Amino acid sequence: MMSFVKKHMKHWILLYSFLLPVVLSATAQDVSIERPDGKVITTSYVDSVALQLMDTAAVTGLELGLVSNGKVAYLNGYGYRNKAMQQLNDTSTCFYAASLAKSLFACLVMQLADEKKLSLDTPLYKYLPKPLPDYDNYKDLV
After folding, report:
1. Which of 29, 46, 48, 81 could form a disulfide with 89 if both were Cys (CB 3.0 to 4.6 A apart)?
2. pLDDT at residue 22 is higher than 80
């Protein structure tokens, strides 16, 4: 499963960077977004909080996406993609994903646990068809 995520991560990032400008153009107005607790916030409020937090933490560039009721509710880019060269960040900016695969894998595992397709209390080796050392990619780790 992890090799699948690593293998296709570049494709997900490219897809995201392609879809980001398309979706953002449809959400350019100040829109109300329902939070998980039922309260409603506006995109202008989200922008003000994001900019305040970026200033507080000295973050030079940020891409932000909000999901509400299972749908993308808001996407925006803030700050610089390259501050030294004064290049502004926009919705087509691609950021280095670093360890994004780890959180994506964790999200997938939690979804499988919610669907009762696996248990978080069951050791991983019980889900494998053969012992872990028998896998070729595992041998690279030892």
Report:
1. 81
2. no
